[in-house]
Design goal:
Helix content is 37%, strand content 13%. Strands 3-2-4-1-5-6 form a six-stranded mixed beta sheet.
């Protein structure tokens, strides 16, 4: 049996301000760092080890991953960073307060943008082409806005190409990413319907442990909470 560990980053500055973040590269709060440390401690306490770490190119996820590795005495474990694990892009909503958007657009419309599978938030007028983290890639990877379905289409190929082969070799893998991209992976792993994914939440820095058989079928799922 092999384990797949999913962890959403600790509280970010945008989380604390109740703002949409998406691909904006915000830092963790002090509380977020404490949450990441706690996640690492609980993984160590339960003796859940990993042979590889996968994260986005956004600092809130990367720092969370490093803090978890440090607590697990696993700083030597390889860490792989990919834009495919970035948070869903919230387009023109990013940087806006969520309560403000409810007042401006209506609670029902905001709920669709935030929670539904196919709804796409308002798009940016143009993509950010100057960011160093994406210079090695074609501009076509840079979204102006994304639905959860669009985020799934870029996240699942990374999982299939880079994580599945390691799991098939019996090597536990840790993914430290974001609320929406982890929801997308959970939808894929658990075969959750487009309608039911609306009710799936992923808490900050709460490790989700999947125990998988040799065919990567789920045997057990556990959420660790200190």
């Amino acid at each position: 049996m092999v384990k797949l560990i999913l962890v959403r980053h600790g509280q970010s500055i945008a989380n604390a301000k109740n703002e949409y973040t998406g691909w904006s590269d915000v830092d963790l709060t002090a509380q977020g760092r404490q949450q990441a440390v706690a996640a690492g401690k609980i993984l160590k306490k339960h003796q859940i080890f990993f042979a590889g770490v996968h994260t986005s190119v956004l600092r809130r996820a990367i720092i969370t991953a490093y803090l978890i590795q440090e607590q697990c005495h696993a700083l030597d474990i390889p860490i792989y960073k990919s834009w495919r694990l970035n948070e869903r892009h919230y387009g023109a909503l990013r940087g806006l307060n969520k309560d403000y958007t409810r007042q401006k657009f209506g609670a029902d419309q905001v709920a669709l943008w935030r929670r539904s599978y196919n709804s796409v938030p308002p798009q940016l007028r143009q993509v950010d082409t100057h960011l160093r983290a994406y210079q090695q890639w074609p501009q076509s990877i840079l979204p102006r806005s994304e639905s959860l379905a669009m985020a799934l289409k870029r996240t699942v190929p990374y999982f299939q190409d880079h994580i599945v082969p390691q799991l098939l070799e019996g090597k536990n893998q840790l993914i430290v990413a974001h609320g929406s991209t982890l929801r997308a992976l959970i939808k894929y792993l658990e075969d959750i319907s487009d309608e039911d994914i609306d009710g799936v939440e992923v808490g900050n820095a709460q490790p989700i442990i999947y125990q998988l058989d040799q065919h990567l079928q789920i045997l057990n799922k556990q959420i660790l909470d200190e």
